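Subject: sequence -> structure tokens, single chain

Hey, anyone have a minute? Need the predicted structure for the following. Not urgent.
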Amino acid sequence: MDRTIGELGVCGQSSEMNIAWIGLHKGEEPPISKEIGSGTIFFTGCSLHCPFCQNEQISSFHTTFHTLVSEEELASYMIELQDIGAATINLITGTHFIPSIRESLIIAKERGLTIPIVWNSSGFESIEGLALIDDLIDLYLIDIKTLDEKTSVTYCSYKQYPNVIRDVVDYLIALDKRTYVDEEGSLFGLLIRHLVFPSSLKSTYEVLDYFSTHLKERAHLSLMVQFINPKERTGEPYISEKEYNELLDYLDKLGIEDGYVQELEDNVDWIPDFSKENPFPPHFASPLASFLEKRGTIQ
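Reply:
Had a minute. Here:
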């Protein structure tokens, strides 16, 4: 298939950037959101079709969200986000639009974009794609969903995800970027995010062991425990308080100190409704008005 002539890839998109939502979002880790929020850009489509994706409304192959944006337009939105106080530019699931995103970032930086750029990804990446955009990224926020093939089939619908993420981590390690928090509280380098899946604690411990061995000295960890089934829309914990405390003890045992752990009692419904102008709880996000004007009616 050739996406440059309008054919759709596995991601469900052509080569033209399709964006579902742009605005300020406070729900990311503290150095990414800070007080005002990250300048969050949700791209439509995804090559990894996880059956429990909280963004399935915009990521599935059959999504009806359709707002095509040029490189110049995206650059303008980035500058607007900076002007209204965004802590970062937070690029969510942009893998399939990397060439256009690169051009947008170059244009925006030429126009005065200076806030950190976050590459927020499932980890289902090609090395070729990451190499194309690496010089423009300040922080990689990368999922390690699982390293277990059985868990991968259940929650990622793709048996080979563990092999892909290992290659991605090897690439990021080879870059030898220093992960640090600067004087303004911004995080640079590499932040690994892992969500505990239901009935998959063994898989989580495998990820933590891997992080300890390969990444502890060069990355921060964000451990999330509040899995939400989008079909049930429930925030009830899938792990017990005892299991949660055992996870915390294991982090101490491994000496993993840099990062963030989600509270077990976090009962926020994190599944957004992108048919609304603000898909998130009002106190967590606010839309960029100029993008809403372009987005108009969802097709």
